[in-house]
Amino acid sequence: MMVIMREGATAEQIDHVVARIQEVGADAYVSQGERVTIVGAIGDREELTALPIEACAGVDRVVAILKPYKLVSREFRPADTVIDVRGSKVGGGHFALIAGPCSVETPDQVLAAAVAAKEAGATMMRGGAFKPRTSPYTFQGLGREGLELLAAAREQTGLPVVTELMDPRDLDVVHEFADVIQIGARNMQNFQLLSEVGKAGKPVLLKRGQSATVEELLMAAEYVVKEGNRDVILCERGIRTFEPSTRNTLDISAVPVIKLASHLPVIVDPSHSAGRLDLVLPLSLAAVAAGADGVIVEMHPNPELALCDGPQSLPSAAFGEYAGRVSELVKFTGKTLS
Ligand code: PEP
Ligand code: MN
C-alpha cells in the first residue's frame, strides 16, 4: 500500500510512518516527490491494513496499489525517473543514444566503434564481453579482456559503458568496468541475478524477454528496485511472434504502455528487434515517435567481419547519418540528447 503524506509533512512524521511500517516486519520505501512524499509499504497485507497509519500525524491518506508491481509503478512515483550515468542522463526528457558492437572483439574494433559513436553524438557506448549465444560453438565473448577494452575506449572517448552480465559469479568484474549493467532478454527472469544487481547499486539496463509480457518485465524490474536500486532502464527489444520477416517483432506499443504504467525510462533496441540493417533507422524513428527515452543500436567498423550479429549492425561509417536523422526527430519531440 501507499501512504500519501500531506504537503509539508516533516521529516520526523515521515520517519515515524516508516518506523510503524517496519514494526510489523514490512519494508518501507520513501519516494520524495516535488510536493508530496509517498511511503510505499510492502509486506503482509493483513498486518499492514490493521495498522492505523491514517491516524499518524502528517498522513493525508492510505491507498492500495492494485498492480502486482509496486515500486516501479507510476502510482508510487508519478514523476519520470531520470538516471544519471556519469553525467549522461536518461528519462524525463533526456534521450540516450547508445551505440557499439554486439560483442567486443579487438582493441581496434571497439575503439573505432566508440570514436564513431562519440563523433556522431552518441551518449553512451555498448559492447558485450559476456555473450548469450544460442549455440555453444559460437564466439562467447572475451570476458574480462573485453571489459578492459571497453574501459580503454571509455578513457579515449568519455562515453559511459553499457555491458552485459549473465552470471552472478561475474558480478564483481562487470561491476568494476561497467557504467550500466545490462541484463539480457534471456536472463530477464533470472531472479537471483536481478536481486544481485539490485544490491550492487549500479544502473541496470533490463531487456524484455523474448516471450515476456510487459507485466512480467515490470515484475522483473521490481526485483531490482526492491533491493534498493532505483536506477533501472527498461528495454523493448522485440518479441517472438508468428511473423517470419523479422528476427523478432518490435512491440512498439509496449513503449507507451510501459511509460503509462511505470516511471522508469524505456528505450528500444531496433537491432535485435528486427535483425535487419534496413529496418534499424525506421524502427529507431518509430521508437522516438512512440515516446522512447533512448535507443541502443549495434554498430561495427566492419559488419562483414563481425563475430556476432553483423547483418543487423550499422557500419560505423554510416552511423553519423543515422544519428543525425534520429537526433532531428528527438529534438522535434522536445527531448534532448544528453
Ligand atoms: C545484446 O544486446 O547484446 C543482446 C544479446 O540482446 P538481447 O538480450 O536483447 O537478445
Ligand atoms: Mn547482438
Structure in words:
This protein is an alpha/beta fold and 338 residues long. It has 11 helices and 16 strands. It has helices spanning 11-23, 45-50, 107-119, 144-157, 171-177, 191-200, 214-226, 254-261, 270-274, 280-289, 316-332; strands at residues 2-5, 27-32, 37-42, 59-63, 83-85, 88-90, 94-100, 124-126, 161-164, 180-183, 204-207, 232-236, 266-268, 294-300, 314-315, 336-337. Strands 7, 8, 9, 10, 11, 12, 13, 14, 15 and 16 form a 10-stranded parallel sheet that branches. The protein has a 4-stranded antiparallel sheet with strand order 2-3-1-4, with helices on one face. The model has no long low-confidence stretch (mean pLDDT 97). The structure holds phosphoenolpyruvate (PEP) and manganese (II) ion.
Question: What's the topology here?
Answer:
Elements: E1 2-5, H1 11-23, E2 27-32, E3 37-42, H2 45-50, E4 59-63, E5 83-85, E6 88-90, E7 94-100, H3 107-119, E8 124-126, H4 144-157, E9 161-164, H5 171-177, E10 180-183, H6 191-200, E11 204-207, H7 214-226, E12 232-236, H8 254-261, E13 266-268, H9 270-274, H10 280-289, E14 294-300, E15 314-315, H11 316-332, E16 336-337
Parallel strand pairs: 7-8, 7-14, 7-16, 8-9, 9-10, 10-11, 11-12, 12-13, 14-15
Antiparallel strand pairs: 1-3, 1-4, 2-3, 5-6
Bound molecules: phosphoenolpyruvate and manganese (II) ion.
